[in-house]
Structures are given as structure tokens and as C-alpha cells.
Design brief:
Keywords: Signal. This is Tricarboxylate transport protein TctC. This protein has 366 residues and is α+β, with helices and mostly antiparallel strands. The protein is built from 14 helices and 14 strands. The strands form 4 sheets. A 7-stranded mixed sheet has the order 1-3-2-4-13-5-14, with helices on both faces. Strands 9-6-10 form a 3-stranded antiparallel sheet. Helix 2 links the parallel strand 2 (36-41) and strand 3.
């Protein structure tokens, strides 16, 4: 078995909030006093998932009854499928001492039927669904042609887009561009979305998207200089599973609105169902925390209450802004529904995506 690398959460961030813990313990009848919670993520110590896990870990220590020691363990490999396979095969006893955090790069191979995948999301119990967002932007001369979200006028324009790959999170924008009828030529091989932005700045790309945090930090200055214009966001997911406007950019239409305004783009049917599944998996419910499938309901309730107590903290908005933004942190039935939508795709929709990847980019997944 491969060795874990780990970081023990400690210091001021782990000071117990006894009132919160007492509330959770009283409501659940459970306690983890004297135990250690292993919070496994299938990634290395760098990157967004590590930041996310290390944000929540000390807060969980405070909120869970008994204030258990909380350790984030990293199990990277095979684009996160190795760690997910490990969790599938090492479920423990479901007593709350093991939790697992995934990301969009874990959900995408599952949705595509990647042969490396040995895990089944239906076997796990989600207790938190954590979303993010993204903004699509254009060069000003192209953006000024768009009226009321109708992208039809741009269908004859040739676009260049810097991409990390068609089966990465870039699957969402590439599929969205196709649904809008845009002619977008992806330049594959960029190492990250930051490199895609630099291509746009140098004039080597004419369309781009950035995640919300990167957009605010690096693209807003371009907008202020008149070098870029935001067109739409991917949107967000409400507690009922509906796509709504991104709460970070409420004045920008969502892709759903733009699709509705663009001739030939449908918000129902096979293509839309495929887009929605990957959008939720990559953005609206990009990261999820799971308990093992054998965890009893009282343990699920204990974690649900702990996350509710974390969200109810007076300082939560302040301390979470940098890592989480203002996106919904869903628990209970909302988390279950978000996870269902992010990991459930019809055979027809999956085949549509597989055929599109093969026909347009020569990529065979299965």
C-alpha cells in the first residue's frame, strides 16, 4: 500500500468552540472524543483541493462532538482516480473517523467511463457539496456584437482557445461553445487556465474562461483597461438542483440564459443533459465530502449538523471568502441531490459526449 503524506491540523485554528461542539453532540448523540478523523483527498499538498481540505479540517475539529484530532491525508495518483479507488476499497467501519473529498477531476473520469475507475459514487454518502464558478470573456470587438446574450452573430467568427485538454474541466467550455454553434479551435497542451489567460492577453486566443477567483484577480484588471469583456458565467446550482445565476456575478447571464437566447442551442435533450452533468461535476458541485457507504444515519446526521454549525458561524463569510467565495455549501438533501446530478448521466448523454470527443478531437476514452 502506498504511504500517505499527511499534515496534522493544529495551532490557533484548532481552538475548540465548545458551544458549537456541544450543540452537535446533543443533537446527534454521537461523539468522536479521543479519536482521529482521517480526511483523505486524492491529490497532492498543492492545489485547490488541498486548500479546500485544510480550510474545512480545523473547522470540523471544532464542530464535531468530542473535538477529534483531524488529519488531512494526501493520496495523489492517476488524476485522482487512484485515491478514489482506494476509498472504494477501504471504507472502514463507518464510525465517522474516515471521510473523503473529491473534485471535478474525480467525477469526470467516472462520468466518461474511464477504465481506470473502480469506484462507485452510489456507494458513498455525501455530507457536503461545495461549488465554484467561472466567467467566459471575449475581445471587446467581438463582445460588442453580442446583444441580449444572443451568440448567433458570432457563429462565423473563428475563435482560438487555450485548453488543458478536452477531457479535463475544459470539457465544459468546449461543449458549451459547440452547443452555441461557435467555431472554436482549441490549442491543447496549456498547463493551466493561467496559461490560457496569458494567451488571451498576448492576442493568441480570442475567447477564454477563468474560474471565479482567477477572474477576479487577473481578468477584472483587463476588463477595467478595456481589453476584455465578460459575456456569461457557467452559473450556480440552487438547493432544488436548478441552474441559476452565479452569486458572485449576479449581473452576468448564466450559460443557460445565453443558450436560451441563441438560435440552435437547446436547454433540453441529450446535449443539454450531458452539459448539465459535467457542469455540475466541474463547477456547481466541484468538490464533495463523503462518508463511507456503511456509515449509519446517526453518523451522517452528526456530520450534517457539524457542517451546518460551521456555516452558521458569525465569521464564516469572512473566513471562507478567499477559499470558497460566496458559493453554496450544500448539506443534507441539497448535497445528496447535487451529487446525484453530478455523478448520474444517461447512457445516451454519455455516448453523445464520447462520440463528440472522438469526432472533433480524435479522443477515445473507453
Amino acid at each position: 500500500m502506498a504511504r500517505f503524506t499527511s499534515r496534522l491540523l493544529g495551532g490557533a485554528a484548532m481552538v475548540a468552540v465548545l458551544a458549537v461542539a456541544g450543540t452537535a453532540q446533543a443533537q446527534s448523540g454521537q461523539t468522536l472524543q479521543g479519536k482521529t478523523v482521517e480526511y483523505v483527498i486524492p491529490f497532492s499538498e498543492s492545489g485547490g483541493s488541498a486548500q479546500w481540505a485544510n480550510f474545512y479540517a480545523p473547522l470540523l475539529r471544532q464542530a464535531l462532538p468530542g473535538n477529534p484530532t483531524t488529519v488531512v491525508r494526501y493520496r495523489p495518483g492517476a488524476g485522482s482516480t487512484e485515491g478514489a479507488n482506494w476509498f472504494q476499497n477501504n471504507q472502514g467501519n463507518g464510525d465517522g473517523t474516515l471521510i473523503f473529498g473529491d473534485s471535478g477531476s474525480t467525477k469526470f473520469p467516472y462520468l466518461l467511463g474511464d477504465p481506470r475507475v473502480r469506484y462507485q459514487y452510489r456507494d458513498w454518502k455525501p455530507v457536503l457539496a461545495s461549488g465554484t464558478g467561472g466567467v467566459v470573456y471575449l475581445k471587446p470587438d467581438l463582445a460588442e456584437m453580442v446583444t441580449d446574450g444572443d451568440m448567433s452573430v458570432l457563429k462565423d467568427e473563428p475563435f482560438l482557445y487555450g485548453s488543458q485538454g478536452a477531457t479535463t474541466l475544459d470539457l465544459v467550455p468546449l461543449l458549451a461553445f459547440k452547443m452555441l454553434g461557435l467555431t472554436v479551435d482549441p490549442v491543447f497542451g496549456v498547463e493551466g487556465r493561467g496559461d490560457g489567460r496569458l494567451m488571451f492577453e498576448r492576442g493568441e486566443a480570442t475567447i477564454d474562461y477563468q474560474t471565479s477567483s482567477a477572474y477576479l484577480a487577473n481578468v477584472v484588471p483587463l476588463v477595467e483597461e478595456g481589453l476584455a469583456v465578460p459575456i456569461f458565467t457557467w452559473g450556480a446550482l440552487d438547493d432544488d438542483g436548478n441552474i441559476v445565476r452565479d452569486p458572485t456575478f449576479p449581473d452576468l447571464p448564466s450559460f443557460k440564459e445565453v443558450c436560451e437566447a441563441t438560435e440552435g442551442c437547446e436547454t433540453s435533450g441529450t446535449a443539454w443533459d450531458a452539459y448539465k452533468a459535467f457542469f455540475i461535476a466541474g463547477f456547481a458541485n466541484q468538490k464533495t465530502i463523503f462518508l463511507p457507504g456503511n456509515a449509519p444515519q446517526e453518523v451522517v446526521d452528526m456530520y450534517t449538523q457539524a457542517f451546518e454549525d460551521i456555516k452558521a458561524r458569525d465569521d464564516f463569510a469572512e473566513i471562507s471568502e478567499e477559499t470558497l467565495g460566496v458559493y453554496p455549501q450544500q448539506t443534507g438533501e441539497a448535497a445528496i441531490e447535487a451529487t446525484r446530478q453530478a455523478t448520474d448521466i444517461s447512457d445516451e448523454s454519455k455516448q453523445f459526449v464520447l462520440d463528440w470527443l472522438q469526432e472533433d478531437y480524435g479522443i477515445t476514452v473507453q
